TrEMBL record, chains A, B:
This protein's record includes keyword Zinc-finger: no
Leader peptide range in chain numbering: 1-20
Keywords: Signal
Protein name from the UniProt record: Haloacid dehalogenase-like hydrolase
One Pfam short name: HAD
Length: 338, 338
C-alpha cells in the first residue's frame, strides 16, 4: 500500500502529538508562572506533604481549607480599591436621579473626576459614596450593577478590565490547591455581595466560598415577589481581627493555608499558622504577597495608604511565613490572554 | 476437564452475584425508606428534570443548592429543641463552679430537673441558660463540650442518643440530592457553632455548609495562642425572615430546593420557590415535613409551641409545596443501625 505524503504528514503529527503529551506529563509544572526558587519549593513541598497518606503531616481532604485575601492578593488594588472604582462608576450612572450631587461633596468631586477632592472627604465621604451605591436597592439590582461594571469598566491607568487585573501566578496557585482537594475561599475586606458576582468567573471560587464585609438586608414579599432589600447599615467588617471571626462564622474550621498581602491579613495568618500549643504540630502555610514591581504592577509596603504592609514584613520571618517578592518570583503578572 | 463440586459452587456464586448486581441496578430506589406515592414521585420527577440536559428545566450543577432546616426537618425537636437539652446538660456540668445556681432561677429548676419551673422562667430564663452555656469560653472549649454531649447524651423519653434521632428518609433525600450534584446546606434557627460539631458526621454536611443563628466573638492572641472567644451577645437569628437573609449572606445564591417543617421555614420556602415574575419559569421545590406520627415520633402542628406549623399548612397547597405526611410516607423514622 502506497502512503501519500499527506497521510505520512498526518501520521507524523499524531506521533509528535503523542510525544508532546508525554513531555507535558513528565515536565508538568503546577505553577508555570512562578520562577523556580524558595517560594515555589515551599508551596510544592507543603502540598506534597499534607497530601501524602504516609506523611505525619497528612491532612484529610475535608480539612484542606485555604483562604485568600482578594485586594492586592488575587487582583490589584492601586491606585484605590477596585470596589471604590465601582462606587465612583455607579455615582456617575445614578447622577441623573440625584441632581443635588452636582453641588454636594463628596459626590461633586466624583462627578468631576477630582480624586483629590474625593479623598479630601475622608473616611466619612467614602462611606457616603459606598452607602449610596451599595444600598437602597434589591439584591438583584445590585448584582446587575456589579455585573455590568465587571464586564465593561476599565482601570484608569492600565486601560484593562478591572476583572482582568488578576494575578496569573495566584490563579495557578488556586488551581493547584484545588487539584489537591483543597476548598479555596476568599476572605476579604471587600463587600461579600460585590465580590460574589464575579469570583466564580475569574477565580473559580463559587459565591458560597466568599467571606467579606456585610451590610444589613431585609426580606419581604413585594407585590408577591420574594425580595431582598439592601440596607445602609454596615454589619461586619471582614478585616484585621475580623478575618478570623469571618472564618469562624462562615467556614467553621481553621484553614491550613492562608494568603494575604497587607497588615489587614495578619490576624488571618496568625489564626491559620500559629500552633495551638505543644500538642499541635500540624503543618500550616502562611503567604504574603509583597508588591515590589513598580514596572509591571506597583511597588508599595510600609508607607502605603492602600494595602499597607508594615508589621507583616517584620512578622513574616519570625512566623515562618513565605514572603513573595512579586518582581523576582512572578514571570508574568496578569493573564496574557485577557 | 473435570469440575469439582467446589469449583461448580464457586462458579454458581459468581453467576448469582452477577444476577443480584443486575437486579440491584435495575430496581435501584434512591429513597428506599419512602413509601411509593405522590411525595416520592414529586421528588424524583423534580431531580430527573433539573438534571436532564435536554430538559427546559435543566439547572447547571453549580446552581443546585438545597437548603434544609434542622430541628423537626432532619432530626426530632420534641419535647424541646435538642440544643436546649445540651444547654441543660451543660448547666449540670458547670454547676460546681456556680454554687449560686442552686438557689437562683432558672438554673435552680434545671438542676432539679424541673422542666415546668424552667419553662416558667420564660424566654428570658431560656436566654440566660443559653448565654451561660454558649458563651464565656473559647471556640475550642465550646466545640469540645458539644462533641462530648453529642456522643453521649440521650433523649429523656426515647433513651436514644440525640444524634441518632435523625430521620432516615431525610438522610436518603440528602444523599440522593448530593448524588445528583446538589450542594446541601443546613439553614436552621439553631446555633451555627453548635450544629457544625456533628453535621458532617450525622448528615454528611460539612461545617462550611451550615447556616444558623450567631453570637458575637472576638479574636485575640492569648499567651501567644490564637484564640476565638465567644461573647454573650446574639448577633443573628436565623429564623423566619432571617432565613432568606442567612442564605443571602452565607450562600449568596437562591436555592432551588428547600425543606422545612414549621412556620419558621415559610420565608425560606417563599424565597426559594416563588417566581420572580413572568420571565422566571424555573422549576423549584418546596417541602414541609408534617409531624403526624404520634406512635413512632410525635404528632403536632397548628397548636404546638415547638415547631408550630399553622400558616404553612394553609400555604402549602397554594404554593405547590409538597407536604410530607410522616406517618403515611415514611417506612421508618430513625436509622435502624443506630
Amino acid at each position: 500500500m502506497e502512503i501519500s505524503s499527506m497521510q505520512l504528514f498526518s501520521r507524523l503529527i499524531v506521533i509528535l502529538s503523542a510525544f508532546a503529551m508525554t513531555a507535558c506529563v513528565t515536565t508538568s509544572d503546577p505553577l508555570p508562572s512562578w520562577n523556580d526558587g524558595q517560594t515555589k519549593t515551599n508551596i510544592i513541598t507543603f502540598v506534597t506533604k499534607i497530601t501524602d497518606k504516609n506523611s505525619v503531616d497528612f491532612v484529610p481532604k475535608e480539612e484542606r481549607i485555604a483562604t485568600f485575601d482578594n485586594d492586592g492578593t488575587l487582583w490589584s488594588e492601586q491606585p484605590y480599591y477596585f470596589q471604590l472604582a465601582f462606587a465612583f462608576h455607579q455615582v456617575k450612572l445614578m447622577a441623573d436621579k440625584h441632581p443635588e450631587w452636582k453641588t454636594t461633596e463628596p459626590f461633586k468631586s466624583v462627578l468631576a473626576d477630582d480624586m483629590k477632592g474625593v479623598m479630601a472627604s475622608g473616611e466619612k465621604g467614602l462611606l457616603q459614596i459606598v452607602s449610596a451605591t451599595h444600598s437602597g436597592m434589591t439584591a438583584e439590582e445590585f448584582e446587575k450593577s456589579v455585573y455590568d461594571w465587571s464586564t465593561t469598566a476599565t482601570h484608569p491607568t492600565t486601560g484593562k478590565l478591572f476583572t482582568s487585573m488578576v494575578y496569573q501566578p495566584m490563579l495557578e496557585l488556586l488551581q493547584y490547591l484545588r487539584a489537591n482537594d483543597f476548598k479555596t475561599f476568599i476572605v476579604s475586606g471587600g463587600g461579600v455581595d460585590f465580590m460574589r458576582v464575579f469570583t466564580e468567573q475569574i477565580y473559580g471560587i463559587p459565591p458560597e466560598q466568599v467571606v467579606g464585609s456585610e451590610i444589613d438586608s431585609q426580606f419581604k414579599l413585594i407585590d408577591g415577589i420574594p425580595t431582598i432589600l439592601r440596607e445602609p447599615k454596615l454589619l461586619f467588617v471582614d478585616d484585621k481581627a475580623g478575618k478570623p471571626i469571618g472564618i469562624y462564622r462562615h467556614i467553621g474550621r481553621r484553614p491550613i493555608f492562608a494568603a494575604g498581602n497587607s497588615d489587614g491579613d495578619l490576624a488571618m495568618l496568625e489564626y491559620t499558622t500559629i500552633s495551638r500549643g505543644p500538642d499541635d504540630k500540624s503543618l500550616r502555610f502562611g503567604l504574603l504577597v509583597h508588591h515590589t514591581d513598580a514596572v509591571r504592577e506597583w511597588a508599595y509596603d510600609r508607607d502605603s495608604k492602600i494595602g499597607k504592609l508594615d508589621l507583616g514584613l517584620d512578622e513574616a520571618p519570625k512566623q515562618g511565613w513565605t514572603l513573595v517578592n512579586m518582581k523576582n518570583e512572578w514571570k508574568v503578572i496578569y493573564p496574557t490572554a485577557k
